[in-house]
Amino acid sequence: MSRAKLKRLGLDLPLLPTSTVGSFPKTPELAEARTRYARKQTTKHELEGLEKKATEFWIRTQEEIGLDILVDGEQYRGDMVAYFAEIMGGFRTGGLVRSYGNRYYHKPVIVGEVKWPGPMTVAWWRWTQALTGKPVKGMVTGPYTVMDWSFNDYYPNRKAACVALAREIRKEVEALIEAGAKIIQIDEPAISVRQEELPFAIEAMHLTIDGLPAYFITHACYGAFETIYPDMLNLPVDNLDLAISNSALDLLKIFEKDPFTKDLSLGVLDVHSHTIESPAEIRARIMRGVRVLAPDRIWVDPDCGLKTRTIAETRGKLEAMLSAVRGIRQELGHTA
Prior knowledge:
39% of the residues lie in helices and 17% in strands. By secondary structure, it is α/β, with parallel strands linked by helices. A 6-stranded parallel β-sheet has the order 3-5-6-7-8-9. The protein has a 3-stranded mixed β-sheet with strand order 1-2-4.
């Protein structure tokens, strides 16, 4: 069904379509400029110029590697939630909290009615898509994760905040579709945090995307997926992108008991490791998925964003991934 939907959208993808989760490392020039900008030592105009230069660098790199569905690399974003909270109405910037490792972000605080201010990512998507003939994913952080990664000082409870965010984020999704985006990824890395809240996370996703003409992907990072499976299949998206490159590959075992009913993006690269996986390693991970799901329902990508890796590590990992995918396509009698 999903392949038919992609064709209706004018997208003819090869077997085992390849992509990435969204973020790439900042180029050294851009990283330095972002620090200078934070210290008010450079202008917004100069920073945006370097963000565009870095975005084009990553588009060309993805094309050279041979990825099928591209991303803008999020060179203009810092944290995936704070970026939207800094633009939307109803938020103020809170203090620093640790995200993971030694990385920190300013946790947003909901202090009023959340409001969509107009397109937040559309200009970047449109500019990036004009650089390439390959499809570029629209990228939006989902309402549950924005709610969960923010303090709520306004709405009566977490569900009310999540539902309000869903209604406003839907407007961004609609704007991306109007601009021409056909594949839209709505990131929900927090979705397995509280098993009891999955029903209203699903309700929020319905509010965000129901009735809209695009192929929708939801990415979920490391989490206790087994605690929300198979209920997570009720998310009204076409494709679930799950981080399963390490022990979570065991998640495939539960698909044998409760069949997986959507397309699956297999996260086959460990983005938290400096090690560049061999094509043989990656091939073994993909084939574990192929033994559980039909290959025409599997996409292949890293298990999360690559922003914590170096440029060389990122390129090496993706080149190994493409090498593995090309080999499997040949074995299965398909060409890219």
